[in-house]
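Progress against Task 2.4 (sequence-to-structure conversion) is shown through the following example record, which the project officer requested during the mid-term review.
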Amino acid sequence: MAVLPLACAAACASFASLAQTTLPTVVVSATRSEQPITDVVADVSIVDRDAIERSGVSSVAEVLARVPGVTINQNGGPAASTSLYLRGGETRFTAVFIDGVRVDSQATGGASWNAIPLSQVERIEVLRGPAAAVYGSDAMAGVVQIFTRAGEQGFFPSVRVGLGSHGTREAQVSLRGGEGAFDYALGLGTERSDGFNARPQGNPDDDGYRNESFSGRLGWKLAPGQRLELTWLDNRQKADYDGFVPGVDDQSRSHLRTLGLNWDGRWSDAWRTRVSVSRGTDRYETTPSPYLSETRVDTLLLRNEWKAGPGLLTLDVERRKDNLENDSTVPAVSDRHLDGVALGYGLRSGAHTLQVNARRDDDSEFGAETTGSLAYGYALSPQWQLTASTGTAFRVPTLFQRFSLYGTPDLKAETSRSAEAGLRWQDGTRHAGLVLYRSRVKDLINYVAGPGNCLNGVGDWAGCYGNTGRAQYHGATLSGGLRVGMVNLGGSLDLMRPKNSDTGMLLARRAETQATLTADTVLAGWTLGSELQHVGKRYNDAANTQLLPAYTLLNLSASTTIARDWQLLARVNNLTDKAYESVLGYATAGRTFYLGLTWSPR
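Structure tokens generated for the chain above:
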């Protein structure tokens, strides 16, 4: 627990930079419009490519584990099944987009985090708080926007190779450039690892994995103010895992694909139109234990933006179609569609910042749902700002929860009401923030063991999904950063209480306390960084009988330029070789080493 006083003393950073990150001037996650970070009332964190490369980790989930308000649980290594809880909310309560393309699994609910290739990621934005009034169903706890590399004028190649513990080796190639009306960005990545034994009580073997990824963005300026862009990403992952049958070496195959076509028309300084057509596909299968599930999310979005004096008015018309192919679902009801219309208005005038959003969604199965949000910020001085917001959100049950062997067709949609208040301070590079939040969820969907109305009502694994109760998520996030002498300090402290409102018990696998403290400096041409991560105790089960003890990790990094255009990175994660579990019965990596070399001419 010694890390907690240190985190408070440092006033802790809004994504404390993995070493130190300079926030981009523009974000899009809060409203779907490009906004200067100074105009955003919402609670947003940004992770840039420099921070990702310095991290030395191999998965998006490991990067997000450093972000305030995020809890990550993994059933083993980077390729294992992964859950993300934003402010304690269920994994399915976070909407995930890759280059604006919605990705989701209608089988598990939420994105397949282990299948998103970190090698292709340029930037990540994390929006904490309900955003259904902007994005529709699913955005109950927040939104994660992931962006691949974009093209620019000129020619910028990059090559990166790396070696790490557990026989890990990786290689990445990136080509970015542009000339005249065209720009492009292409990326290839491969990663292999022998892994480690993820279930010490299961099969005594190492659970390795292999990733092959590709991303691309092609842009064409059709005319002044008119741009067409094609984006795609493809990642194929093969991973070993220990199933439920002793002595059987199971293997999973994941295939994540996104494809988007976007047209952006700027008719004047005040009027802009965007049209996006996209498909996100999430496929998962296992062998020799047979299982197959594939989700496709097709989206058509028409967006108009009008500037009216200091304000911005937006209108969205959106159609989304979900399709599920799963071994245990009823073929006749494998898809559904949702039509949404959303209005937004944002204003910054003097000391006042205002954002209002309203949306109405019509689901082919559940009918209409209306959501809204209101956010306000007031600048007490050039350094201090007060913020407050409130919003409603919902999540339609997945097709698997309704129509699988374990499904209940008459499930209700989960709904929430949330409110938060914040205080921010910024003085040059020094900054601090405090956010208090509270969210209440009704008709929470859980798997209920025992006889039920579903097809799986008998036998050893009897049970089905049901709207079993209510949940409450409330907490506080303290964050900030400052420079002391030659050392940059930053960090974050999260105090959360995600609980079942009916039983008073903590929700499974979510800690009440999390903290991150970072420090970095430059010495003799080397950038040296250190990072403490603390996760408090949790319970593996809803009854709060299976304790998962607290743990603290120490990570170190060092990087330098060894020659023109050549950079060397060394990283040690979990320096003290701490043994811990985020899911009962599944091991995590001990002390690991990583060495990476990057060639990037400028």
